[in-house]
Fold:
Amino acid sequence: MGESVGPSSKALGVLLYQWWVFIHIVGVLGFLLAHGVSVSVLFALRGERDPGRIRALLALSGRSTSAFYWSFLVLLGGGLAAATWGHWWSAAWPWIALGVLFGLMLLMYTLAKPFYERVRRLMAIQAAGGTAVGEAEIAAAISGPVPMVIAITGVAGLIGIIYLMVLKPF
Structure:
């Protein structure tokens, strides 16, 4: 008579964990798609010299930022909830993954944001007819090692986080 009908609390916990992992992965997908726009623009800028096309690329990158931030919130919320429902907080790997994630964000903020702001500022001066910004200044702003450092660091960090999440080593 005391038998319960329906899923046990353990089965329900596993199901909720799986859903949170799913939500986390959907957030990662959105994050990578939105972020991919900015990365593509980063590399397209390096070979571009036409001011109109540079401004169009910058506008495209700017339009992807809200999708980037929303998807980041989804991936972070889903990941935190999955770690909680999966009882992973006693393991080291989720903490290391979060450290890598926030370290990457700090690095990208200190490298990518000034890069894009400098190029935007130069293009605004150039569009306003300013004579202080010519082809040489624009070329100097969009070339250099910053795009490669950003891309290599981002990919390495992403591979590191995937390694931690899939293999759960620590």
In short: Residues 9-47 form the longest helix (39 residues). The chain has one domain: 10-167. The chain has a mean pLDDT of 89. The radius of gyration is 21 Å.
